[in-house]
Amino acid sequence: MSTGSSPYGPYAVYFLSADYNPSEPGYPYLLNDFAKIATTRDAFLVFYDEFPLDTTGLGGGFFNGAQELAFNKNALEKGLSVFGRDGKPNPNFTVAIENMGLLPTPDGTCFSDDQFHSPGITCWFSVIPAHPADSSQFDNTHGGSGFMLNTLDYYGHGDTRIAVFDWTGLKNLNSPNCSTCSGIQFGGTLFAGVNFYYGEGFLAAQKKGPIPLGNECGAAGLSVGSPPPAKCPEGLIATNGDNFTQASQGNHHLWGAVGTEIGQTYASSSSTEVHQGVAYWVIGTSTFDSSDYFTLSSQGYVSPRHEELEFPAMASGGTSSEDGGNGKAIISFSLSGNGGPTGADNGGFYPSSAYGRLTASSNGLLGSVINIADLGRSPQDGFTEYDGYPVSLRPRWGDYGGAIFMPWSGGKVFFASEYIQYQNCTGAAFSLANGTCGGTRNGFSNWGTSVNSVVP
User: Fold this and answer.
1) What strands, in cross-sheet order, belong to the sheet with 448-454?
2) Which of 300, 360, 374, 366 has its CA nearest to residue 325?
3) Helix/strand/coil for 287
4) How many CA atoms lie within 13 A of 403 on its CB side?
5) Intra-chain end-to-end CA distance of the chain, in Å
6) Which residues are within 8 A (CB) of 324 and not within 5 positions of it... i.e. 6 or more apart?
7) Which residue in 61, 209, 373, 380 has the most C-beta neighbors within 10 A?
8) Is the pLDDT of residue 321 over 60?
């Protein structure tokens, strides 16, 4: 946390260890994975998934569930020490903790699911805090509230449920020694019957093009077999699992999206094309403020004809004075594809950065238009595409995108997504000893990050 007016420092630095609780299964070898943050008026919210590294977790399983923490934001902003000079906890530095691994889910518990009666399957996982753009988007009802979004496809068969969780009474973090923290509550709401989502681990195609590392696959030691193949074919693009990777809060709504398989049908063909697209939901919070329940304002699918989408992120515009209060938003993603069976779009797209516009009630993209922000120049050609070939492994793809509205920017939403920004060199221009292609990549990877801004 910056201790003055400059965001460049100096800073007060805080550390969070998953091994803070000796009674936690797997202590002292716990991994906090996939951490996400958000803020409220009163709290700095942190989430992570917890894994035991060399011992068993809850019920003897491999996973301890989602962990939600709410730190006293006032203490952080003041740069207070966690401990006093006497070595005892600082009574003005407070935190609320919810171990969601101990909470039942609709399909069982983290200790035992209802179908296989095994641990570690039906745990709350990846419960992502919704981040507001600035203080005008905070929800200060119920003594200060914060929100989280979660999917529920525990068995990988697809699902029609999502969950919204809430912290309330977070102003009580400001009480010395958390003396009134009994007023902090953690609750949730299950939405059933929402748009179906499916496709964890589904891999997306990309346009055919030069793959110099793939051509050097055997020499690079990235293939297996007897003998290992000298060359490996062009690989696919990772699209994420079936969980939210980001949740946004704005204009009295929560915004979140996940990847899903989409069946595309065309009058010119009797066959259905299956592509990776996006399912998204917009959850209203105004009814929660007044009556303690959330509303589903809209939902929809996004799927480009014959092509693929990866790692969606959403962000809404600003306050009513900045966008008319109509809930304008964007959804961003990487876009790739091979044009489907007909090779549409001149053979598809190299991995590109793209986005679409929508509102809180549009139930789809405005104008049904996907916009290309940065057009990809080559296929992904990294070691994760080939490592272990011909054994099938999941490639990595820059991992995640993000989007956020920036106040005082002229109404812009800034977003980042992964793409391939340079053409791949070929032949003698690429070698394992010098794989930089003139400084445009390194020998074992070539993906980049595109950062853009747009008015919704």
Assistant:
1) 402-405, 413-419, 448-454
2) 360
3) helix
4) 34
5) 31
6) none
7) 380
8) no
* Contact assessment for residue 208 and residue 368, using Cβ atoms and an 8 Å cutoff: no
Contacting residues for 372 by C-beta, under 8 A, at least 6 apart: 335, 352, 353, 354
Which is nearest to 252 in space by CA: 290, 302, 195, 299?
290
Order of strands across the sheet with 30-39?
30-39, 43-52, 66-72, 95-99
3-state helix, strand, coil in the chain (%, to 5): 15, 35, 50
- Kindly tell me the sign of the dihedral angle through the C-alpha atoms of 280, 421, 381, 235: positive
Q: Over range 252-265, report the average pLDDT.
A: 96
Residue percentage of the chain with pLDDT more than 70: 98
Distance separating alpha carbons of residues 230 and 216, to the nearest angstrom = 7
- Of 164-168, 214-218, 224-228, 449-453, the one with minimum mean pLDDT is 224-228
Q: What is the DSSP letter of 58?
A: G
